[in-house]
Amino acid sequence: MNRERGIHEYFATDPERADREAWGRKSEPSSRRGFLSGLAQLSAVIGAEIVFARFMPTGLIPAAYANSSQPFRIQGKNGLTLLNDRPLNAETPAFLLNDDVTPTERLFIRNNGVPPQGVNTLRWTLTIDGEAVVNPKTYTLADLKKRFTPISKQLTLECGGNGRFEFDPPAKGNQWTLGAVGCPRWNGARLKDVLEDCGYQENAVYIGYYGADTHLSGKPDKLPISRGVPMNKALEEESMIAWGMNGYDLHEMNGYPLRLVFGSWPGSTSGKWLKRISVRDKIHDGPKMVGKSYRVPCTPVAPGSNVADADMCIIESMPVKSLITYPESGIRHPSAKPLHLHGHAWAGDHKVRALHASIDFGQTWRKARLQKPANRLAWQNWDLSVEFPNPGYYEVWARAVDETGRSQPMVVPGWNPKGYLNNSCHRIAVYAA
Length: 433
Ligand SMILES: Nc1nc2c(c(=O)[nH]1)N[C@H]1C(S)=C(S)[C@@H](COP(=O)(O)O)O[C@H]1N2
Ligand SMILES: [Mo]
Known about the structure:
Layout: H1 7-13, H2 15-23, H3 37-46, E1 81-85, E2 88-91, E3 109-110, E4 125-129, E5 137-140, H4 141-147, E6 150-154, E7 157-158, E8 181-182, E9 185-190, H5 191-198, E10 206-211, E11 228-230, H6 231-234, E12 240-245, E13 248-249, E14 259-261, E15 274-280, E16 295-297, E17 312-314, E18 321-326, E19 331-333, E20 339-346, E21 352-358, E22 366-367, E23 369-370, E24 380-386, E25 392-402, E26 426-432
Parallel strand pairs: 4-15, 19-26
Antiparallel strand pairs: 1-2, 2-3, 4-5, 6-9, 7-8, 9-12, 10-11, 10-15, 12-13, 12-14, 16-17, 18-20, 20-24, 21-22, 21-25, 23-24, 25-26
The structure holds the ligand Nc1nc2c(c(=O)[nH]1)N[C@H]1C(S)=C(S)[C@@H](COP(=O)(O)O)O[C@H]1N2 and molybdenum atom (MO).
């Protein structure tokens, strides 16, 4: 496949050249975009006057350039951008995440190995075992559906590496932009009910999952991934064993026929094609639980640092973040008419307190209307009408703050070796006509 990554990688790997091509001149950090020729060039490239150019930060890649997506076709998915075909990884462009409840066809796919083929739901079983379980048990899918109270919850699923494309020096792995997130409504049983049905001992510390997917190497003794969560997270009311999404079976790339869902924690905790859960008497130690996977430096480090494994801490609740899902970046809009923006905001285990948007590169901000989450750990919808004073190029920036007072950073936050937790603000381009 074509691995061209577009403007972001371009700016990341060869900023001098990208700068030259974008602005038509050599990059001069102090005077960049120093008006006259530069600004005229930039406006010409963008195709409109940048109305608030005097506020435009140095070194900013115009959001107008941000879209370079390849169409991706797989049954039951629609409009996703392919990042990797082996293992399969695909994300959803922000404007296709506009639904309050993410449709199955719009939920991203993040596979670490090869999904199981020819799943027979009649023979699918889930085993609960481990050092700290009281009675190990094996359930069929029908048992689970029959024996446990069915629940349905909207839960935000976001890959820990969402936003990785912006880190510099770049981190290896899928260069997710914005779309490794979604918030479908999941159907299933409470994990807690199942764990209590088996009983867990006082020394239970963690649960670890095992799925039916296989390692890329084809070696049967190697697992692609086996992660988990601490007992207190496993026992939360929202922690689910899901057999459905939005009222139907799970999509085969999203874990059909059974998976875990831990809303607001790194997506990697939500084990797909779930076959087994071990109740552990220590922190689970499966592949991608250890080393640097899904961990960040316990204390901040300089970009590009080498960090010892012992100084890396497991990511738990994800940070505050938001998306502008309407309109699509690059839209043309009559300047005489208000534009009604829409999007979502989420903040890990916390609620979002407010969302503010700016059309003048952050000089002034307006507070959006923000809805309550459908239930705990579901994203919150926001909307706001904005008006553009003159025809020309604008950027809409959105910024959420959580109930503890923590905001999204405007630019990429602390560098970490694997490129996790980029919750910088989302911005889009709007051409007012
Ligand atoms: N068995 C298994 N579970 C898995 C994975 C996987 O590769 N295998 N990927 C994890 C990662 S890293 C993420 S972000 C989520 C993605 O879920 P989705 O593909 O349904 O969007 O599933 C997690 N669960
Ligand atoms: Mo992930």
